[in-house]
Structures are given as C-alpha cells and as structure tokens.
Specification:
CATH class of the domain at 101-267 in chain B: Mainly Alpha
Number of strands of chain B: 0
Radius of gyration of chain A: 24 Å
CATH topology of the domain at 101-267 in chain B: MetI-like fold
Number of helices of chain B: 13
Helix content of chain A: over 70%
CATH class of chain A: Mainly Alpha
Oligomer: heterodimer
CATH superfamily of the domain at 101-267 in chain B: MetI-like
Number of helices of chain A: 10
Order of helices and strands of chain B: HHHHHHHHHHHHH
Structural class of chain B: mainly alpha
CATH superfamily of chain A: MetI-like
Chain lengths: 297, 316
C-alpha cells in the first residue's frame, strides 16, 4: 500500500466518522434523556401528564399545567401570527417579487429574525407588560402584567419572520403558467390569489405554520421572562403560568433527585414533540419543492 | 417491432409531458370562478381592497420588529461609555461598573464552541456532499433536521448531564460544548449546500491530472467553496452569541473576570437575563446597554456573512 493510499483511506475514514458522529450524537441525546428520566417515569408513569400538582417539597409531580401552558401560548401565538405571516408571504411572494422594497424587506426580516430571544424578553418586559397591565386594569382583572397573553404576544412577534419566509418561498415556487392562464381568463389579482395561489401553496403554508409551531413550543428565554412563573393550572389567558421550557429554565439548576428527573422527563417530551413537528414540516416542504422542480422540466 | 405504433406512442408521450398537471385541489374552485357573475367594478374594488389589506398587515407586522431595534438603540446607547465596556459589574448601590467580564466570557464561549464544532461540522458536510446518495446520508440528514429543531433548553439539560455533573460544577467548557451542539447543524448544512453547487468538472479536471481524491477535496473543492462555508460559520456564530437557555445550567454566570475554562463564566445574554429579572432600575438600564452591545455584535456577524456571500461569490 502506497503512502497516498493510506492518506486516502484515512481521509475517507475521517469524513465517514464525523458523519456518523451526528447520528451517534442524536441517539446519545435521546438515550441520555430517557435514562435520566427513568426514576420519574417509574414513579409517576402516565399520570404525570394528567396530574396538575407540581410540588417539589412533597415530591409530587404532574406536568399538566406546563403542557397546557405550552399548548395555549403556542396556539394563541400561531393564531395571532397567521394573518400577518400570510400577508407578508403574499406581499413578498406575489405583489412585490423583485425590486428595492422587496429586497430591503426580505433581508431586514432575515436579519431581525436573528435578534436573540433574551432581547425580545427584555423588550416585552418593559414595553408589552405595561400594555397588558393597562388592558387588565380596564377589564377589571388582577393587573399581573405578565402571563399567558404577554408571552403569546412576544412569541407571535418572534415567529412571524420565520413562517413568513417559508410561505414566501412556497408562493414563489408556483408555476407562472397557472397564474397566467387565470389572468388570461380575466381574473383579477385577488381572484388569482384566492383561487390559484392559496390552494396551490396550501400545504407549504401549513408546513411553515407547523415549523413555526415547533419553534414556539421550544422557545425558552422570552417566554420564561414574560409568563409569570406559576406552577398552577392557569384560569384565564391573563393569568401567570409556566411552559415546559420555562419550568426547566427556572428550576433545573437547583434541583436534585426526583425533581431533576421529572424536569428531564418534561425535557424528553419536549424533545420528542419538536422532533415530530420538525420532521413532518420538513417532509412536506421537501415534497413540494420536488413536485415544483418536476413541473418545470 | 412495428415502428408506426412506436412513433404514435412517442408522440402521445411527448404530448403527455406538455400538459401541465392541474392540481386536484384547484378543481373545486374552477366552477366558482367561471360562474363569477358579479359586476367588474365590484371585482376590481375587491382586488384593490385586498391589496390594501395585505400591505397594511405587512407593515403592521414589521412595526414590532422595528420598535425592538428602536428601543434598544434609544435606551442602550445612553448607557454605553468607556467604563461600561472595560469595567466589572459593581454591587447594587455603587455607581459605575460595566460588563467587561460578560464580553470576555462571550468571546471565550464563541472560541471554545468554534474549536469543537467547525472541524467536525466541515468534515461531516464533506461526507454529506460526497456521499449524498447513500442510506447513511439520508439518516444523517434526518438527524440534522431534528438537531436543528431541538429546543436550546434541552441541549442545556444534555450538557448538564454529560459535562457539568461529571466535572462537579458549572464551567465555561460545558457552555462551549452546549453551544457547539447548536452550531453543528448550521455549519454542516451550509458546507454541504456549498460543496454541492461546485461544478463537477472542477473535480474531474483535478482527478484527471492524477491528484489523489483527498487532495482534490482539500486543495480544490474546499478552497472553491470557502466563502459559502465561511458564511455558514458566521451565521452559526451569530446564532449562538445570543443563546441564553443552554448557558443557564452550563456556563452559569460569574460576576468576576474569569479566564479559566473549568470555572463558571459570564456571557452577555446571561447578564441581560440576570439584570432584566432583577428588581433594581439601575440594573435595568444596564440590561439595555448590554442588549445594545449584543445586538450590534449579532447584527454585524449577520451583515458580514451577507457581505461575504454577496461579494465573494465564486463565478463559474
């Protein structure tokens, strides 16, 4: 074997091993979470997701308040963000496809999407909180300021650029001849958008919303700062609560034994849910772009 | 073989390909459009109304993003001075002090995580670009999707179990490892995408000259794709510079200056979180100042990355 052959083999081995290490890393993450949460799984089993009592001093743990908090904040955030992100998708994907405005808005959304979540949290703490407090006093409820409503608002602001950029990409993939055919029949632009673009891009828009949902579930810092850190089942959308991510952020550093194990159990659930959502969303988008590339040829 | 039938088939085939497949989801709407009997003026009005609505909603959704930037600049810039950048934090009640330790801490964390993730990320990216047909490559791609979507707080837990617990305490090293896990998917994906775009004849030319495969990759393909890979690295650094969640129980935070990577270390995002959640108004202004610095760092990483990919693009 010559020297070159040896180096050749070494190179191939190195890139193969580093590729493989990604699979190993993911398997290791999953098995570590699973093993570390076994004490909690054994003690609480399935009732972990039904019980609403989270009491570290009595060592009784139920994750229902956090599951509920995560779902409700993410869903409210999604509903707030959907009209806006679809509007931006249409704005950038159809009305202003090229030119200065489009380029400027597109790159500024991308850059602004990179603002760290802790800064959104800080901004929400000093600007959204007084607004919520004002709404609460005028409604006559306790003016906490923090809570599900404030957290959902900041989440919505944070996921709009994300789902809008996916929506824009899907809309710009629509074959021009479909739209032109509709125009040639005398359709107005609104009719083209309503009857061609939205139905055609529907699955892509849904995938974008799905991926945004995955991001909203896992979002930690901004939510932790604004949700009010309460371990009870929330009574209204203004009351303080906790999400799965925020309870981990708040309590994991000081926890030991069964408390830590229960928090890791929540982490495991979070990991599995985001995994499913991300795989589904990515699969849909891949399918769409494959179909689009087939239709062009 | 009767050729006439073949030709007929071929013609049919060719015609089949010309027809644009009309998605079944659109057929329901066909009838409605055809039966649209409303007067033209009303339809044009609806069209205009919709355009206005889209533009208004788009502008509205930009508003909060611009407001965030505006408030950070307004509240942050007045706090920034030389002392803020070069002094250590002081206890509450004393005037002055700064965030020097956090800036240094963030730098150390970035360097640590880059050292771990860049070599691994680039070589995994080469593997994916070169062997992208295989089954293992498919599995790796799936893993990258999952890894990219994994919540940062979960990565914090993992690093706590893997590094902090065995070492017996919070450390800069564990923070670097947590951040490097977050960097990996971005670097791998950008390396793969860049290398796939490089035309095949470059590689063929090099191989035809008798250059061994590994030298072709390292000396021809990688340098050609350098700008794309660099963009990916900068974007991933921009992503982790602002991460707080994985640092909460790994690097932890430290109000003193620390260069030892086995001791807890401060970082800008952690300091912002700590100051923002404190009850003292003086510390809140410090949080705005630190936010301004952090946003400037993150935005400049992003802009440099954009500049590199625009200016330094290899023309084929």
């Amino acid at each position: 074997m010559t020297k070159t052959d040896k180096s050749e083999r070494r190179f191939t081995n190195i890139i193969f091993i580093s590729g493989l290490s990604i699979i190993v890393l993911l398997l290791a993450i999953f098995s570590t979470l699973l093993i570390a949460s076994i004490p909690s799984i054994k003690t609480f089993g399935i009732s972990f997701f039904i019980s609403k009592h989270w009491d570290p001093s009595l060592e009784k743990f139920g994750a229902l308040p956090f599951l509920y908090g995560t779902l409700i904040t993410s869903i409210i955030a999604l509903f707030i963000s959907i009209p806006f992100s679809i509007a931006i998708s249409i704005f950038l994907g159809e009305y202003f496809r090229e030119g200065f405005i489009s380029n400027f808005l597109r790159s500024s959304t991308e850059v602004l999407a990179g603002i760290p979540s802790v800064i959104y949290g800080l901004w929400g703490l000093f600007l959204l909180m007084p607004i919520t407090r004002f709404i609460q006093t005028s409604l006559g409820t306790t003016p906490y300021g923090v809570g599900i409503f404030t957290a959902s608002l900041i989440l919505a602001i944070m996921i709009i650029p994300f789902s809008a950029s996916i929506g824009r990409e899907v809309i710009s993939l629509i074959p021009a001849d479909l739209k032109e055919a509709a125009y040639s029949l005398g359709a107005t632009r609104f009719e083209v958008i309503k009857n061609i673009i939205i139905p055609y891009a529907r699955s892509g828009i849904i995938a974008g919303i799905l991926l945004a949902f995955g991001r909203a579930i896992g979002e930690t810092m901004a939510v932790t700062m604004l949700i009010g850190n309460s371990n009870f089942l929330p009574k209204s959308i203004f009351s303080p609560a906790n999400t799965m991510a925020s309870i981990i952020a708040n309590e994991f550093a000081e926890s030991t034994g069964i408390t830590a194990s229960s928090l890791i159990y929540i982490g495991l659930v979070l990991f599995l849910v985001t995994m499913l959502v991300n795989i589904a969303g990515t699969y849909i988008i891949k399918k769409i772009s494959l179909e689009a590339s087939k239709e062009v040829t | 073989m009767n050729t006439a039938e073949n030709i007929a088939e071929n013609i049919e085939d060719a015609n089949m390909h010309k027809i644009i497949p009309f998605p079944s989801s659109l057929r329901i709407h066909e009838d409605k459009t055809l039966r649209n009997n409303s007067p033209v003026g009303y339809r044009i009005f609806k069209d205009k109304l919709f355009k206005c609505l889209v533009i208004i909603l788009s502008i509205l959704s930009f508003l909060p993003l611009l407001l965030v930037l505006f408030h950070i600049t307004k509240n942050g810039i007045s706090v920034i001075n030389w002392g803020f950048l070069t002094e250590l934090p002081l206890p509450i009640g004393e005037k002055g002090g700064g965030v020097f330790n956090s800036i240094i801490g963030s730098l150390i964390l970035i360097i640590l995580s880059s050292i771990i993730s860049i070599p691994l990320g680039i070589s995994a990216g080469i593997y994916l670009a070169e062997k992208n047909k295989g089954r293992i490559a498919n599995i790796i791609n799936l893993c990258i999707v999952v890894l990219q979507g994994t919540p940062s707080i979960v990565i914090g837990i993992i690093t706590y179990i893997w590094v902090v617990a065995p070492l017996g305490g919070f450390s800069a090293l564990s923070g670097g490892i947590a951040l490097s896990i977050m960097m990996l998917p971005v670097i791998i994906k950008s390396t793969e995408e860049t290398l796939k775009l490089i035309p095949y004849h470059l590689k063929e030319a090099s191989l035809a000259l008798g250059v061994p495969y590994y030298k072709t990759i390292l000396k021809v393909i990688l340098p050609t794709g350098l700008s794309g890979i660099l963009t990916g690295i900068l974007l991933s650094v921009a992503r982790i510079t602002g991460e707080t969640a994985p640092l909460l129980f790994t690097a932890f935070g430290n109000q003193f200056l620390n260069y030892n990577i086995l001791k807890p270390i401060d970082s800008l995002p952690y300091r912002i979180f700590y100051y923002a959640m404190s009850p003292y108004p003086e510390w809140h202004t410090f949080a705005w100042g630190a936010s301004f610095i952090l946003v400037m760092i993150v935005l400049s990483f992003n802009l440099i990355a954009r500049g590199i990919s625009a200016k330094w693009k290899v023309q084929f």
